[in-house]
Amino acid sequence: MLDRLVRILDAFDAQNPTLTVNALSRRADVPRATTYRLLENMVGHGLLARDADGQVRLGLRLWELANRSASTLDLRQAALPFMEDINQLVGQNTQLAVLHEDDVLVIERLSRPGSVVNQANVAGRMPVHLTSMGMALLAYSPAGVLEGYLQRHGERMLGQHPKLRHELAEIRRTGYATFDGFIDPESTGAAAPILDSRGYALAVLAVVVPRDSGLLPSAVMALQTAARGISRALGPAAD
């Protein structure tokens, strides 16, 4: 039963924020009768909501429960003042993300009018191998995490990054990662890791700037300074 509940919740994504019951049943691979029965209970508990036209969406209760997560709450609270400074300084969207279930999970984003196109959305997932955020997180992961990820996704990673280990070593040497046009040809992503006392990435702070805009050096400096500040603000909670 729990597996079916999770599949129903997982059926929603950025491209499908609302679904009909039939589509929900199909995407979750749960029989329609069972979907109807579970839907009534989940709506009753606020985990799902039903629109006036019968479409189903995730409920606010999920947002409420997720925001009680102590580790995420502490991280967001520590990071937000620094993110606001970067957002003002660089004039581009700024985001905070973690490595979760082999994806980059965005947990906060500050938008900016007139900013370059940015595919990162709060609670959205992005591929590790196509983002500066993912590469910075991977470069500063414990050896076991890195090797496990490569066992599961090595073919895809090496197809995009034939000199992967050299790239990761260079990210560790410089303290940041940048990608030009991997997701959007007009943009460059830059990311700096937020480290615990052992030197492993708790999260990553990132911006997306227009390609060839001249903003990258100042953005990287601001990210690295802010990432160190967030690590200090987290203190013992970072370990």
What's the topology here?
Layout: H1 2-10, E1 18-19, H2 21-28, H3 32-44, E2 48-50, E3 56-58, H4 60-66, H5 70-90, E4 94-100, E5 103-110, E6 125-126, H6 132-139, H7 143-160, H8 164-174, E7 177-180, E8 187-195, E9 201-210, H9 216-234
Antiparallel strand pairs: 1-3, 2-3, 4-5, 4-9, 5-6, 7-8, 8-9
Which structural class fits the helix and strand makeup?
alpha+beta
* Proper CATH architecture of the largest domain: 2-Layer Sandwich
Sheet-strand content, in percent, reads 15-25%
What characteristic shape results from the CA principal axes?
globular
For the biggest sheet, the summary is:
6 strands, antiparallel
The number of helical elements comes to 9
Annotated CATH homologous superfamily of the largest domain: GAF domain
**Strand arrangement across the biggest beta sheet:** 6-5-4-9-8-7
Number of domains: 2
Helix percent band: 40-55%
Number of strands: 9
User: Kindly state the mean pLDDT as a whole number?
Assistant: 90
Q: Terminal Cα separation, in Å?
A: 35 Å
Care to describe what's here?
The chain contains nine helices and nine strands. The chain is of the alpha+beta class and 239 residues long. It folds into two domains: 2-65, Winged helix-like DNA-binding domain superfamily/Winged helix DNA-binding domain (Arc Repressor Mutant, subunit A), CATH 1.10.10.10; 69-238, GAF domain (Beta-Lactamase, 2-Layer Sandwich), CATH 3.30.450.40. The strands form two sheets. A six-stranded antiparallel beta sheet has the order 6-5-4-9-8-7. Strands 1-3-2 form a three-stranded antiparallel beta sheet. Strand 7 (177-180) and strand 8 form a beta hairpin. Helix 1 (2-10) packs across helix 2 and helix 2 (21-28) crosses helix 3 (32-44). The longest helix has 21 residues, at 70-90. The two termini are 35 Å apart. The model has no long low-confidence stretch (mean pLDDT 90).
